[in-house]
Amino acid sequence: MTIHNRIEGIFRLTRPMHCASPDESLAKSDDGNVTPTMQMRIVTPNGVQTIPYFPGNDLRGRLRRKAAAQVLDAISVAKKIRLELYVGMNSGAISASPDSAALTVEEVLRARDNVYMGLFGGGARLLRSRYSVADLVPVIEDTIAMGTVPSRFGDLADGGFKASFATDEGLKAMRGYQLVQVTQVLRVDDTLRVLRPDELEKYIGDSSAVANYQTAMLAGTATRKADKAKAKAGEIKKGDISGKVGIGNILAYQSIVAGTPMYFSLDFTDDVTDEHVGLMLLALQALVREQGLGGWVRAGLGKFTADLSLVRHGESMAIFTDKAASQDATFTPAIIEQFIEPATRAIAKLTADEMFEFFKERAGAESEVA
């Protein structure tokens, strides 16, 4: 990797962002009804801190799929493709087990010149990719102090800023935990609560069905509540608690607060071509236009603006025409001419057969020939 070929900048959240974490200790809840968002522990001059983030591995998968769509749109024009190729291009491989056949110099060189495989790698014999993408981390005093975020992104004089809050003494730096909020979600059973009796009378043919439904739901809830009490007292095992029958529910999830600036960093290897960079830019544009990072997108979460720059052989250029690019993200003319047009031409030359060769196993075929 090299600092001379990279994409970096800021994703500024315009809505909260949630990415579910399996670490239940982050939820700070005993009932298990709060889904935590991803957080990491970092060592800073202010001691060990916990900060929320969005995983780079998640970004990597999304970018692969966006790039795959660009290629699949082109190669499927002549005829439909095989399911295996679709799976391979979106997931990186068709099988969970790598092909035992040796990776040849010929395939490495062929992949290098392929606009998609040369960038994202993968395939049956695990070709290497030519980029890495880091976790999205908040721009705060602690991440700048530890060197994760370049200081210029927190410098007001350079147009950046770091998360802070106002006090009587002026602005104070925010800690990572202060960027995490909890949202409660209430799911109501309209029928059980008889919220609109006129509708029940209008739409339901069997008037006794509502009473029977209420009786069953209430009985199931009472049984489950009693089982929980028995489990707490040690009279029964947790696995023996009756299942939930009612659709009503109260749950909560953590998210990173809206307005948080998140540092984005993607690094290329020295030998990437302009076509490779162009395909990555197309994937990145599709990601920004989609406006849906993480979970609870259905509730409007995961929206952001992108202010990104490409550094290519030491020369820096803005990627989008707007410093707050979102669903209408548009490339600058310089980006289109130098990267997007070459990438588009390279994609147009690809064929389904050519792409499938990278995902097809050779081990069995070689043994048959032998």
How many domain units?
2
Q: Flag low-confidence runs.
A: none
Task: Give the overall silhouette.
Answer: globular
Helix content: 25-40%
How far apart the termini lie comes to: 40 Å
Mean pLDDT: 91
Quickly count the helices. Answer: 12
Radius of gyration: 26 Å
What can be said about the biggest beta sheet? 6 strands, antiparallel
Order of helices and strands: EEEEHHHHEEHEEEHHHEEHEEHHH
User: Structural class, from helix and strand content?
Assistant: alpha+beta
The beta-strand count equals 13
Q: Which percent range describes the beta-strand content?
A: 15-25%
Strand and helix map with partners:
Blueprint: E1 5-13, E2 34-35, E3 39-44, E4 47-52, H1 56-75, H2 83-91, H3 105-112, H4 117-120, E5 131-133, E6 137-138, H5 141-145, E7 164-167, E8 170-173, E9 180-187, H6 190-193, H7 197-203, H8 207-232, E10 249-256, E11 261-268, H9 274-290, E12 304-312, E13 315-318, H10 333-348, H11 352-356, H12 363-369
Parallel strand pairs: 2-10
Antiparallel strand pairs: 1-11, 1-12, 3-4, 5-11, 6-11, 7-8, 9-10, 12-13
Helix pairs in contact: 1-2, 1-9, 9-10
